[in-house]
Amino acid sequence: MDPDAASPIAVALHGGSGTILRDRLTPEKERAYRTALEEAREAAWRLLAEGACALDAVEAGARCLEDCPLFNAGRGSVLTAEGKHELDAAIMEGERHRAGAVAGLSTVRNPVSLARKVMECSPFVFLAGAGAEAFAAQQGADLVDPGWFTTAERLEQLAKARERRCAVIDHDDHESEKTGTIGVVALDSRGNLAAATSTGGLTNKEYGRIGDSPLIGAGTYADNATCAVSCTGYGEEFIRAVVAHDISARMRYRGESLSAATEHVMHVSLAEIDGRGGLVAVDASGFVSLPFNTTGMYRAWRDSSGSEGVAIFQE
Ligand code: ASP
Question: Which of 35, 44, 89, 252 gives 20 to 30 Å between its CA and that of 229?
Answer without folding.
Answer: 35
